Amino acid sequence: MTDDDTRQARTDAVRALEGEFSALITHFRRLISENATRVSPGMLPGVYKVFTTIVRRENVTLSGLADELIADKGQVSRAVRELESLGLIARTPDPDDGRSSILSPTPLGLERLAAARAPQEGALLNALDDWSVDDIRNLSRMLRALGTGATP
Fold first, then answer.
1. How many C-alpha atoms does 1 have within 13 Å on its Cβ side?
2. Torsion angles phi and psi, residue 95, rounded to 5
């Protein structure tokens, strides 16, 4: 195989991977939209993303949340106000900075999120049922390397 053939084969493989990622992203967008609606009818996927990030982080400031989501503080602030009005998150004073608040999920928020996720909760487990644990770990390792730009 010549260098040109190898380069073309790599390009073709990367394009195929890009197509698979595109399909996967579309699938996850659909799931996120469905979950957002199950948490609260009419909730936009972006607000759901803010909510799930707060849940994952457990305690986060508005600035930390905006930084993590690479989003405008104003947009994040509007989403936080919506989540707070729905009783899904709570603000408490930041003990380290009196000008700031700590955002955390409420028991109602955690309950609603668990219920929203329940319909597809086992889907990934089922999809990977015939995979070896080593293959699943290898996929995780390779995705992490791809996401960080490291060599697997």
1. 8
2. -65, -20
Q: What is the CATH number of domain 3-119?
A: 1.10.10.10
Asked if 35 and 48 touch (Cβ cutoff 8 Å), the reply is yes
Region class of 42: left (phi > 0), else alpha (psi between -120 and 50), else beta: left
- Predicted structure pTM score: 0.77
- Tokens 């028991």 locate to 107
Q: What is the pLDDT of residue 104?
A: 95
Among 37-41, 68-72, 111-115, 125-129, name the one with the lowest average pLDDT: 125-129
Contact between residue 38 and residue 118 where contact means Cβ atoms under 8 Å apart: no
Determine phi and psi for 130, rounding to 5 degrees: -90, 0
| Domain boundaries along the sequence of the chain | 3-119, 122-152
